[in-house]
């Protein structure tokens, strides 16, 4: 199950490719349809469905759905059932869409998944698989911050109050002895919630001194003079922590398990293709991110290359790290201690993994049994 990071083949290939666009990953409240991703449906319908509606973000940490759509791997598994994608800029909006039936399956960060599950008292969603690990860094202005000891009195951006990176930064600062009010962001360090698409400009203008952000925003900050002071991988056992999960509405899972299984099989096969075709995967990711419905802006190889290499695709949802991330949110005062028992249903994923000759994954005591 280990998350496998595309390594040496990528570096050489990237130098030879003029790579396309990648999203600056903003955070808003609306989803956009992605018509370019709708590969023609052919063959028998899965579970008798006309469509399966999926949701994801337009950034590097959602490489699995982006690349899978670009390469037609999701449509291949669903046959005559059309894939209907929607692109989101924020976790809460995606949870709302899942709850309303606007999407059936989504890729999302751990914090909104936890919040969605707990607010519904365990009735809205299930985490059914992993997607990505890593891809988050603390990038600083090297003229203002030379070491981690220099953070006191500085302004550090995170994407959104209570989002996964916000919780991670608050937890890190607390462990280092800094006092910060989680809600206001004020204290020994100022945590300034800033949309990822705005963060590079704020960084260049000196409005922030650093940022704890996901890819590709972290790589973009480095490309304009920032320095990676801390890779969040270094804070986790074996360098692995969940950054993107797969979720499904419980209603859809109960009514259409064959469709869910088909999407999981597409995800697993997409991840395998990414690992075995790293250079092609980078290009496919950029081709999809360059779509006007997602970003429409091309980023150079010195941004997309490091961003892709810093993000690991994984079938394993890394359940133990989700429990830890929930504990961090509780300690920060952003979440009451949640009951996460039953948040995972990994039965279909493990069925797919067995058929693919891969090891089963574990729910760390947070599954149905």
UniProtKB/TrEMBL annotation:
Gene3D superfamilies: Periplasmic binding protein-like II (3.40.190.10). GO terms for molecular function: ATPase-coupled transmembrane transporter activity. Coiled coil: none annotated. GO terms for cellular component: periplasmic space; plasma membrane. Residues 1-26 form the signal peptide. InterPro entries: ABC_SsuA_sub-bd, NrtA/CpmA_ABC-bd_dom. Its main location: membrane. Keywords: Cell inner membrane, Cell membrane, Membrane, Signal, Transport. Pfam families: NMT1_2 (PF13379). It is found in: Cell inner membrane; Periplasm. It comes from the Bacteria. Belongs to the bacterial solute-binding protein SsuA/TauA family. This is Aliphatic sulfonate ABC transporter substrate-binding protein. It comes from Streptomyces benahoarensis.
């Amino acid at each position: 199950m280990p998350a496998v990071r595309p390594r040496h083949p990528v570096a050489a290939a990237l130098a030879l490719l003029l790579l396309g666009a990648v999203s600056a990953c903003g955070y808003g409240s609306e989803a956009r349809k992605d018509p370019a991703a709708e590969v023609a449906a052919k063959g028998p319908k899965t579970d008798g469905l006309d469509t399966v509606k999926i949701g994801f973000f337009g950034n590097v940490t959602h490489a699995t759905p982006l690349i899978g759509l670009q390469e037609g791997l999701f449509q291949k598994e669903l046959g005559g059932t059309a894939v209907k994608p929607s692109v989101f800029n924020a976790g809460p909006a995606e949870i709302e869409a899942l709850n309303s039936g606007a999407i059936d399956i989504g890729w999302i960060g751990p914090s909104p998944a936890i919040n969605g599950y707990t607010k519904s008292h365990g009735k809205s969603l299930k985490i059914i698989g992993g997607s990505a690990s890593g891809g988050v860094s603390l990038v600083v202005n090297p003229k203002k911050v030379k070491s981690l000891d220099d953070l006191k009195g500085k302004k550090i951006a995170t994407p959104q109050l209570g989002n996964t990176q916000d919780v991670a930064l608050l937890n890190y600062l607390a462990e280092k002895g800094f006092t910060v009010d989680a809600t206001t962001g004020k204290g020994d360090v100022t945590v300034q919630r800033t949309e990822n698409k705005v963060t590079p400009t704020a960084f260049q203008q000196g409005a922030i001194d650093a940022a704890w952000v996901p890819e590709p925003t972290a790589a973009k900050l480095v490309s304009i003079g920032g320095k990676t002071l801390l890779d969040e991988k270094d804070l986790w056992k074996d360098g692995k922590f969940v950054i993107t999960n797969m979720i499904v509405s419980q209603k859809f899972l109960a009514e259409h398990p064959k469709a869910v299984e088909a999407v999981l099989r597409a995800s697993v096969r997409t991840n395998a293709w990414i690992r075995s075709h790293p250079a092609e995967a980078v290009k496919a990711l950029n081709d999809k991110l360059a779509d006007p419905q997602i970003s429409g802006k091309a980023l150079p190889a010195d941004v997309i290359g490091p961003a892709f290499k810093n993000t690991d695709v994984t079938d394993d949802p890394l359940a133990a790290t989700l429990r830890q991330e929930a504990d961090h949110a509780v300690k920060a005062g952003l979440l009451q201690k949640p009951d996460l028992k039953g948040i995972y249903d990994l039965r279909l994923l493990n069925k797919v993994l067995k058929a693919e000759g891969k090891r089963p994954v574990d729910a760390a005591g947070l599954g149905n049994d």
